[in-house]
Automatic annotation (TrEMBL):
Source organism of this protein record: Citrullus colocynthis (colocynth)
Top-rank lineage group of the source organism: Eukaryota
Protein name (record): Hydrolase family protein / HAD-superfamily protein
């Protein structure tokens, strides 16, 4: 990713502030830019497309590798985004690689969850689509689903296929990672319960629960539809409710993502890196850089604003009205430092304040 900064000007002087942009409900709704986001982001670059202001995308969303997400954001928003600038809900999963080494882990969610985990260094990872396809009749509703994957249980033709199926079905799953929103809740809840209550061997007797990780716990988020849509937190509630009815011990799990203040501390470190790479034209400069203010621009009071409040100084929170929050005044429980209509208004305010 360092090469992505080779266009950075040597004239770049480090500003004493940086910006973290939420994506859904601030910059995009579905795939469409909102709130003047393309022209707003262009203001962070000079006339020749060189970055002037250190900024990152700090989203709970995901499902694609940071490099792929960066290209997609570059295309949709019309600016040159580096993978380093993309921090997704699942990005911290990379720190768990050593715990699992060659052990089998399952990746759940829309997009390319297994490719995400492989890029982080997991060596033995299967998407839940592929994993489920190795078990005959694990999902009794599969015949009614047009999108069921073709590899696996009912499609083995060669000795190698049969051997692979036997191997996968008898290999213990050590952990399940919810990388992005589940596409097929009924199948995923069924198969996850099978994995979790049997110690990672679906169809076998009850055993100790394997580890379960969620990239975030957003109950709802703002997509293209006018009202909010159910997020990973809603899926977590559904899975947990069912698991706790069928199992004597409550489901154990870990959630990453905003509003955890650790996400904001990590964002600060990434912003420092972005800033230092700019200054030294492509090579990371480890010299400490002090930000007086870091701006979090978000649309969800209980996630973006709550997280910035918990993280404390130097975070300054700005709440837009383009997403989950639709009120006129500030939010009661998680009041932002500033409430504006759009991301463009937020950045204009920052420029005015920072001179
Ligand atoms: O699934 C994505 C959603 O929960 C939140 O995305 O960009 O608003 O943090 P974002
Ligand atoms: Mg959002």
């Amino acid at each position: 990713f360092l090469r992505s900064f080779s266009h950075i000007s040597s004239q770049f002087t480090r500003p004493s502030f940086g910006i973290a942009f939420d994506i859904d409900g601030v910059l995009l709704r579905g795939d469409a830019p909102i709130g003047g986001s393309p022209q707003t982001l262009r203001k962070l670059y000079d006339d020749s497309g060189v970055l002037r202001i250190p900024y990152i995308f700090l989203t709970n969303g995901g499902g694609f590798r940071e490099s792929k997400r960066a290209s997609n954001l570059s295309e949709v928003l019309g600016v040159n985004v580096s993978p380093l600038q993309v921090v997704q809900g699942h990005s911290p999963f990379k720190h768990l690689v050593n715990r699992y080494e060659n052990k089998l882990v399952i990746a759940v969610g829309k997009g390319e969850p297994a490719a995400v985990m492989s890029e982080y260094g997991f060596r033995n990872v299967l998407s839940i689509d592929e994993y489920a396809s190795f078990f005959d009749n694990i999902d009794p509703l599969a015949p009614y689903k047009k999108w069921t994957t073709t590899k696996g249980a009912n499609h083995e033709k060669t000795i190698a296929d049969i051997t692979e199926k036997k191997k996968i079905c008898s290999e213990r799953v050590e952990a399940a990672f919810i990388v992005s929103d589940s596409v097929d809740w009924s199948r995923d809840i069924q198969v996850l319960c099978d994995i979790l209550r049997t110690g990672g061997l679906p169809g076998r007797e009850f055993a100790h629960q394997p580890n379960l990780y969620f990239a975030h716990d957003d109950l709802e988020y703002q997509a293209a539809f006018p009202c909010e849509r159910f997020g990973m937190g809603a899926f977590r509630i559904a899975l947990e409710s069912i698991y706790n009815r069928i199992h004597p011990h409550a489901l154990q799990y870990t959630c990453y993502g905003k509003p955890n203040p650790l996400v904001f501390h990590n964002a600060q470190a990434v912003l420092k890196l972005v800033s230092s790479i700019h200054q030294s034209k492509g090579a990371a400069n480890t010299e400490a850089h002090h930000f007086k203010t870091l701006y979090m621009i978000g649309d969800n009071p209980s996630v973006d604003i709550n997280g910035a409040i918990q993280a404390g100084s130097p975070w300054f929170s700005i709440l837009t009205r383009t997403g989950v929050f639709k009120g006129r005044e500030n939010h009661d429980k998680y009041p932002a430092d500033l409430v504006v209509d759009t991301v463009e208004e937020a950045v204009d305010y920052i420029f005015k304040k920072e001179g």
